[in-house]
Design brief:
About 35% of the residues lie in helices and about 25% in strands. It is of the alpha/beta class. Strand 4, helix 5 and strand 5 form a beta-alpha-beta unit. Helix 6 packs antiparallel against helix 9. The protein is globular and about 50 Å long. This is Methyltransferase domain-containing protein.
């Protein structure tokens, strides 16, 4: 229900497509959860691999893509990806790295499995964007959006805004999702502040391309 509501107008996918092309290429969805995004990549990618550490989610993801011959789901963690070096063209990680400092082992592993010229694309929630960012910071007072932005800039990422809409079919669904996203006190405040069936949520789409190699001059 939450996945269906998120990015109802496809803004994240639009920004992703601008930052990295995956048509005809090999894609790794890192932290793929129950595989919600795997079929979307499989529409045009040559192959799609989902890696997820939690067994129940792995089982659900495998069920979701059972009829897609180009998609596979494996158990693994971001800091220990069960793949050989230089085997994929795109690594996609959605809301997996938004705490910034501390994720260096995962970034290094993503670079390891990327082919030269490949792209690591990270979709982060924007902790500085209201109203969702306000709710997030209320639950995580040590969360510092400016520090996280600086971290990814120092790591060589280009970061772009993606302002999305979370849209729900009914009020009960909206309230249920907010209750699983936030602590009870923050969820109550969030629910009270939202009228209707939708609200904006800001993301940061971060991308970094792996160098293709040195160019040697014949001179």
């Amino acid at each position: 229900m939450e996945n269906r509501a998120q990015d109802a107008d496809g803004e994240i996918w639009r920004v992703l497509a601008e930052r990295c092309e995956w048509t005809g290429l090999d894609v790794l969805d890192l932290g793929c959860g129950d595989g919600f995004h795997l079929p979307r990549f499989a529409e045009t990618a040559r192959s799609v691999l989902g890696v997820e550490p939690h067994q129940p989610l792995v089982r659900r993801a495998r069920q979701r893509v059972a009829n897609l011959s180009s998609v596979e789901v494996m158990v693994g963690a971001a800091q220990r990806i069960p793949l050989p070096d230089a085997c994929v063209d795109v690594v996609h990680a959605r809301t997996a790295y938004f705490f910034g400092p501390g994720c260096e082992p995962g970034l290094a592993e993503a670079d390891r499995v990327l082919r030269p010229g490949g792209v690591l694309a990270i979709v982060d929630l924007d902790g500085g964007s209201a109203p969702y960012g306000d709710w997030l910071r209320a639950d995580l007072p040590k969360y510092d959006p400016a520090k996280i932005e600086q971290f990814f800039a120092d790591e060589g990422f280009d970061s772009r805004d993606a302002v999305t809409t979370w849209r729900f079919e009914d009020r009960a669904s909206l309230e249920a999702v907010l209750r699983i996203e936030f602590s009870a006190p923050v969820a109550r405040k969030a629910i009270a502040s939202v009228t209707g069936l939708s609200f904006p949520v800001g993301y940061r789409v971060r991308s970094r391309r792996k160098p293709s190699g040195l160019v040697h001059s014949d001179g």
